[in-house]
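Why predict the complex rather than its parts? Because the way molecules touch one another can change local conformation, and only a joint prediction can capture that. The input here totals 810 residues.
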Amino acid sequence: MLLNYIITAWKVFLRRKFFTFINLFGISLTLMVLMVISTIGESYFYPKGPEKNTDNIRVINRLVLTNEAHNQTNSGRLGYKFIKENLFRLQTPELISINSGSYGTSIFHQGKKTKLLVKKTDSNFWKVLDFDFMTGRAYSDGEFNEGKFVAVVNQHTEQELFGDASAVGQKLSLGNQSFTIIGVVENVPIVEEVALSDIWVPYTTNATTDYQQETRGSWDAILYHSNPAILEDANKEYINLLKNEVILDVSDNMTEAYSGAYTKLESLSREMFYDNYSYDTHEELFISVMAGLVLLFMLLPSINMINLNVSRMMERSSEIGVRKAFGASTKQLLMQFIIESILLTLAGGILGIILSLLILHSIEASGLIPYAHFPFNIRVFLIGLFLILVFGLISGVYPAYKMSRLSPVTALKGGF
Amino acid sequence: MFLHLFKMIWNRKRSNSLIIAEIAIAFIVIFAVAVLAIRNYNLYQIPLGYNYENMWRIQIMPTRGWNESKDEITLLQIINSVKQQPEVETLHLLENPTFRNWRSSSSVDIDGQEISYFRNTFDDNAAQTFGMTLNDGRWFEPQDSNQNYDPVLVNQEFVKRYFPNGKVIGKNIADLESEDSREKRIVGVFQSFRQFGELSDVVPYVFSRSDMQAPGKTLGIELKLSADLNPAFEQRVLEMLKALAPENNYSLTSWESQRQSQIRQTTVPLTILAIIAGFLIIMVAMGLFGVLWQNVTSRTHEIGLRRALGATAVGIHKQIIGELMIVTFIGITIAFIGLVQLPMLGVFQELDWPLFWVSLLSAMAFMLTLAALCGYYPGKIATMNSPSEALYYE
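Output of the joint prediction:
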């Protein structure tokens, strides 16, 4: 039976090539856009680079300080002093790593200028994140504590500065300081902003220790626990600490602190719906807004397909009439038309997936998103398949319903 | 004629309603693209108010807070040593950089009127070097130091918005009632200084004066260079600065490159949106085309009957396109009822009435043309039906 439907569908598609083309075009483009967006989103939420253990880390990169009346507010990143006096009191996380945030710098090497990002970190940074080393190694606790002038660079930096030669053992001068490169890691995709940089050096090599006096600054902290469930408690402990026993500068007049240790989803939704005086990150709102946008985007192509399918039905009214006259039930016809429409969406969907792979590949090649890497992955493929089915059902059910209810007499006569 | 066409559409309202919905949504998409395109084009046409050629900025990025007594001396040293470089033509102070969204804003209550503006500071001759135009009053002058007031310069937009009668020279814009507040006296009006670049709104803007001898906390030094910058110079300056004050980080960027990256920040997402919208519109156009084609084929009898009763081919063609135009117009009207709420309720501050109407009319023109194009060929097919063939079925 199913085979029969498929054969009929194939014949119908071939008979009206133009209609089939319009349908395929619409489905494949819609799915292509959705797939590209979900792949980019997927690479953010499920990182493949150093943040691949994303479930084991939470990041603190925002701190809002305010007074009781909320008329004097400072928001920004954390200062070293705040981290030292508050964050280091947390008991739950197994490891806490802090880094100075990354900043751009110009590096001059053999008369050539290269713009690169530098991040100053501790040695825990290499334990909480899962970097893939091409050659060499990370700096150890000992090297960090002694303030050794050692650096880890990414492949891009190695390529820019030393060409095909190995960077390990080479000297790298940053400002007036000269660092020895001890390791080379794979490029970090730009969406992994916690790990992101081109060059990593120990922050103990700073020329002065002035940075230790600041409550606000440009620092990020990463909390790590090998068990994600316990890590959630670390966030609760942190918020509790902020509410009840936070230590702040008396001279600042600030009495309240708002911050949180966020997962990837939480930091994104916090950026979008930020609310200075709350610990809430509004993920539910974020998810519903995103789902709403996707539905809105699918609305136009769906209506378009419904329209096309409805009008195609006119042409087949005599076929329906004959089948009804020979005793086909409404249910059988409904099934047939839904299968037809799903088949069409499936074909369009496969085309859409191929197109999206091409687009993603060209985004990678163009360097529009630095260090982007979008390999084919099963999760996105399943999302795509799901979207195809939803799409096929949305655009197929109404026309099929309408078609199957035609009365055989009018259908045979060719009317509607 | 129209009433007649309308009646026919009404008779087929069930099959037309989905087409109308499709047109309404497509129209909203076109409208959104038109608003963004027209708004950015208009903004791009407004002069910047300054020149960015050969201008460079040294950005000082302290790793700790500003120390009043210590850091001003360091800053003076930095200024003096950079000034001595042969490539540097002139050197000025500017607190907030151009082509970036770093903004300082203030708002005060003067005589019951709320005055809010963006502010910046520069030194005495900066305006001339930046190539700004003076419309009224004077620029800052050395005798402005040690006065019992702070001189400020305001832009034309500030005057237009808050002093419509045009008399602003000598007026105060500081809230004198609050403690330790000094008078801010307007000494001049300049045409404009669009700090946030070509694709930003024209906003009220106020310059305060900074003194090259006592710069206070200024983290930006603007250089006008005599020629193109070479890496050797850049390296020399950055290393010199790092040696002078190792506690800071420094960057040296040209206004031009900052401008390009800022324009890109706006245009890249807009281009992506436009491409997606383009795909949607092509999809809709092809959909309409297909539906109409099908429609015409299934109405063979009706059209044949009309031909037999003496309708001309042109008449039939007109009827098909006319029907489509009316359907399109209904769709646009439904979308319009929704869209008109936006400027009425002031949902988007940037969407004012002139922009709304211009965008609406261009979107309408586009939509109607598109519909006419989609209807042309199916209409033509309809005229090719010979009456005898059509009536054969009856």
